[in-house]
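Reopening: Alpha-L-rhamnosidase still failing for me.
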Amino acid sequence: MSFSLCTPRKIVALSAVIGCILLLHGYVHAQLPAVWNNLQSADARKPLTVTRYITPARIIKTTGNIVNAAQVLQPGTGQADLTGRNICVLRNIGPVKASLLLDFGKELQGGLQLITGMHTSGKPVRVRLRFGESVTEALSDTGGIPNATNDHAIRDEIVQLPWLGKFETGNTGFRFVNITLVDTFAELKLKEVSAMFAFQDIPYIGSFSCSDSLLNKIWRTGAYTVHLNMQDYLWDGIKRDRLVWVGDMHPEVATINAVFGDNPAVTKSLDRSRDDTPLPQWMNGISTYSMWWILIQRDWYYHNGDTVYLRKQAPYLRQLLRLLCSKTDHQNSEHLDGMRFLDWPSSQDSLAIHAGLQAMMVLSLQAGADLSRQLGDASTAAHCDATITRLKKHIPDANGSKQAAALLALSGLWPAEKANAILSKDGAQRFSTFYGYYMLQAQAMAGDYTGALNNIRSYWGGMLQMGATTFWEDFDISWMRDASRIDELPVPGKKDIHGDNGAYCYIGFRHSLCHGWASGPTPWLTQHILGIEVLEPGCRKVRIVPHLGDLQFAEGSFPTPYGIIKVKHIKQADGSVSSSIQAPEEVTVIRQ
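Support: Ran it again with your exact input. Result attached.
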């Protein structure tokens, strides 16, 4: 050990260093509360979702030089290793580029994990990844007439894969992935391919089963479609329209009420829409969407009974209702501004839109008056009632529109039987995925349960027939004619049901094949076939009246804040129905 005396210069320098250390310590200590607050803020954004790793179900097609392609169908560990065993090798040794087209078996939300081996270059290797909701979308280029896009989520990208490592990418909706080796004379050793499936890990509390296996599959598919869209917020689509569209939420929330019960994605989305829309603006720029917000609040309160949450909505709700009441003219007709919209298939029919808006005014003000009474706001409730009385003096014509006819029936402006004469014409032709729910509701009001069941079978069942594992943004049963399924390679002489159809904002491959607004049959089957109808907030009182139509039996469950309701209905030889019902003691069950 050596020792030397400190000179004055050294002492000064050492003092300066010590001073800097003390200052730094003080700064860090002072910043700790801010750092902690930032961490708390970050925790407030903690995602509601988890990630699971899914192995491909099958290889649809290989192109070019590929050895041991079947390896990618084996479950992986998520870890690269030095063994060099069990490797799929892609090589570009000529003009044809090596590619793998994979099917994960069902629609997923998330991305892709790739585990690589020791390819000969020892350097990163470029691959092109194309995610698709259909086989043909995964084979497509962006742009052009087929209209594949990267809107809202990147589904077509060129990335670099590491040598002997792990790579993760993607945040979109997909079932199919096409992996193409990009560079000439390149080699890629691929150990594993897994989908990173991001979803809320929540139980399916509600259930439905009946004597028709197709209806059972439709109920489950509607539930799964909404489940995929229940991310941190409630989206409309997981590939495109990864946004909170309030009107589109209404059938989604009906499905959540029937299947999952209380879920924070709903209230987060309702509050986000409220906070993003200072009055007198309309939510999403569409007057009906502000009205759907009211209807969702009413339905949510009746299912969950959260009075504290409802009271937080009171100031905005009161102003919104008074704004709506001001949108009537001296002829008792609505004169709503903003985008005048029901759904896309009806968007060119101004007469149908007026009829639908008149009905929506009545429906939303009825719901608003009910909520106002629950909140003790008698003045606003009376204002809504007076406006409803005026609106009912002007009854528009539906102009043959199934959308308008359904809303006119649900609002009480038309007898349900009159609406059903339009709704039952030509079966499921001129149905739509969004407003199909309200068409079914109006048919139930008219007592046409068998007709509604047949429309569910042909319309939503038609999507399943074409390979769907989730329900689509739009669908027309005429698309099925001479068309190939979404899980098939292009068939010469057949139409591509995905790339060759669509309209408005969803032309071609931009068309979303997982859209929550299309889930209507799920809550409809629970409400009308199982017969479970909520009568009082918090499910304190429910009515259970089954309507089996042409079914022999139906059974299922329904979530309430107090526990699960279970029902089973069996049709007897004389046509009557025998029912067994189990309900929490806090829930009063009315049977009629």
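The longest helix spans residues 8-44. If you still see a failure, please send the error message rather than a screenshot.
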